# Entry
Amino acid sequence: MELIWLEDFVALAETGNFSRAAENRHVTQPAFSRRVRALEDWVGAPLFDRATPGVTLTAAGQQFRTGADELIRRIIQLRRESREAGGQEAATLRFAATHALSFTFFPQWMRELEGGASLGPIRLISDSMQACEELMMHGEAQFLLCHHHTAAPSRFGAQFRSAVVGQDALAPFTAPGADGGPRWSLSDTAEEIPYLAYSDESGLGRIVEAQRFIDRMPGLRTVFSARLAASLATMAREGRGVAWLPVSLVESEVASGRLVRAGGVDLEVPVDIRVFRPTARQSPAAEAFWSELAAH
# Structure
């Protein structure tokens, strides 16, 4: 059994489509299909029902799915820990953080936690929520810092736990008009309003999508999408439409009058800032950090 077979299995289970899964795995579909079949031969049972319109898991596949993610993560983590044994890398804290928080929250958070005493070497990878989840699932990061809302879907199940480390909010912002008020107002339901949306990779997009603003406001028309809140903030500042943005990210633009709220507090979405970690025990340095976080 090979690790890539497990990763192929997860990709196909998530997409339900051989072509998309093969594309995500950067391999031709025939080669991908052969690897999936090799895994099924190793297990000794079919894992996917190919007769349905979309590829679905069999009963054996559902059982295998329960441990596949954790097995991948543990294998990669074991390999990394073995390589790092006895070296300085073993003391390095590896964080993944979504783009917005890596700029606005992470530096200050580290200063507060250190309190005059260094936490040791730190490695930060800043990316989309989807990419950060992959890093965590594969054991490439020990901690993930992200915005979180209970209504938004997450890939993290019982094998992960989290702690709230801050608060933020998502609110609709737009450029000011000639009178200083919002150029596009969500209170004007008769007007068609250009909407600046998050792409599928974005965790903030999941949170906004869960609020179903587009269903509630039929006048919203998507004209632009991007995975970064900073990109949407720039487009909103240029007068291209309305975007739901983290309040912490646009404080300076709001203070200078370059962005104004496009709606009232009823359209604001309170969110937690959470740090996630695997439930399984990690390196001594990572566990020491978690203890420090709990004490703080």
